[in-house]
Amino acid sequence: MAVLILHYHEIWLKGYNRKFFISKLKEAVEYSLDGLPVRTVRHEENRILAWLDTSGDENPQTITHEAVQRLKKVPGIAYLAIAQEFPPQLDQIVERGAELMLKASFHTFAVRAKRSRKDIPFRAADIHHQLGRRIEEKAREAGQSVKVDLDHPDSTCHVEILNQRALVYTEKIPGLGGLPTGTAGKLVCLLSGGFDSTVAAYKIMRRGVRLCFVHFYGNPEQPGEDSPPIAQKLVRVLTPYQGRSQLFLVPFTEVQQQVVALAPQSLRILLYRRLMLRIAERIARHTRSHGTVTGDSIAQVASQTLQNMEAVGGVATMPVYRPLAGDDKQEILDTARRIGTYEISSEPFTDCCPLYLPKSPRIFSTVGELDAAESALDIPTLVKRAFDARRKEVYEYRAGKVNVQRSEERRSRYETAPAGMVVQA
User: Fold this and answer.
1) Three-class SS of residue 78?
2) What does 140-166 look like in DSSP terms, one character per residue?
3) Which of 81, 161, 82, 99 is nearest to 126 (CA)?
4) How many CA atoms lie within 13 A of 231 on its CB side?
5) CB 217 within 8 A of CB 250
6) pLDDT value at position 90?
7) Each residue of 16-72: pLDDT tens digit?
8) What is the DSSP letter of 179?
9) How many helices and strands, by DSSP H and E, does the chain display?
10) How much helix, strand and coil, in percent to the nearest 5, is found in the chain?
11) Coil, strand, or helix at residue 167?
């Protein structure tokens, strides 16, 4: 039976709130492993342990690999390991640990042991010396030449002594880090389909935030370049990081046509972004979220100069979070490749922001200038009509798969409820 050891790091800083964060992490681990033969998941001595019952499977490595791949997407796990469990007895640890090490090929090695029990009749140093010597002996018997290297070993035998068990493993697998999903509240992310907003979503989700996604779309420039399918693919990739996602698809063509007809050409993109922010805030209140997330990176494009971000954000009545503000493009692209969204965002699609793009977009604008440009527009009506035209899709990650439920939301369900009545979004 394989034992998965899950170590957390940042949760240690939470003081009296630590139990809340640990319970959320344990809940996320159980949710992620749904559908696999998990015997039990337990929080034990500052780590989470999950036992996989692979006894009846012809290929237990496949199950273990699947469990690890799922857990690598759970926020809050600093690193994990696949361990073997023994009684906390020195002779067993030495013999079985050496057998485990010799399954791999290496020239240099180290032994790292730590114990939470202080009443056991041996020390961590005893494990280091005796297990290290036994590894050398068994390697020599197998015709291998190995030596100890404590600084840069090819392989390391890790031993963790708990109250009732000893856990031995040879590889630490990096986790996602951050904080467990749902511990920091909910935000709405403006998802364009490009690289930036997707990476911004990933970075925010690692901080324990659950995201709802909003995608604005217009008419495609070429057949087959509709943007909603791109947004849907991206949400499928991002959903395993938080278990469940809502995607709101909002038609934006009518809004753009009004801006093109009635507002100065050089300010079009900035006015688009202002209207998107207002609509996203309406959805944020609808979903009981606490603000919005954008993929803005300072000075990457004309609309993202400090002056323009200030002018666009001047209409915000809720906090706007910009996790990529200090990232350069290469950092963003590297992260997109790592999380598996790069190829999707590289597919051809029509981004509604560049539609009707002015020849010389304004680089430096002010709140007053944009307020004046909007005076010709019926902002409340545009926001309301776009909000009412939204479509919602719910993505749920269960048993290693993402399932989608699509529905046309009924505005009356949310806006005609009696005062004081709580309606589940």
Assistant:
1) coil
2) HHTT---EE-SSS-SEEEEEEE-SS-E
3) 161
4) 28
5) yes
6) 93
7) 889 999 999 999 999 999 999 999 999 998 999 999 987 766 677 889 999 999 999
8) B
9) 14, 16
10) 40, 20, 40
11) strand
Give the tokens for residue 66.
């699947």
Contact 213, 245 (CB under 8 A): yes
Residue 413 identity (one-letter amino acid): R
Strand partners for 79? 7, 174
Q: Which position has the token pair 């500052």? A: 46
Spatial contact of 394 and 400, defined as CB atoms under 8 Å apart = no
On the CB side of 251, how many CA atoms lie within 13 Å of its CA? 9
Report whether pLDDT(117) > 70: yes
Amino acid at 123: R
Structure tokens at 139: 């390697």
**Parallel, antiparallel or unpaired: strands 401-407 and 210-217:** unpaired
Tokens of 304: 């993202």
Q: How far is CA 105 from CA 32, 83, 375, in A?
A: 32, 18, 72
Rounded to two decimals, the pTM is 0.89
Asked if 74 and 28 count as a contact pair (C-beta separation under 8 A), the reply is: yes
Contact 364, 276 (CB under 8 A): no
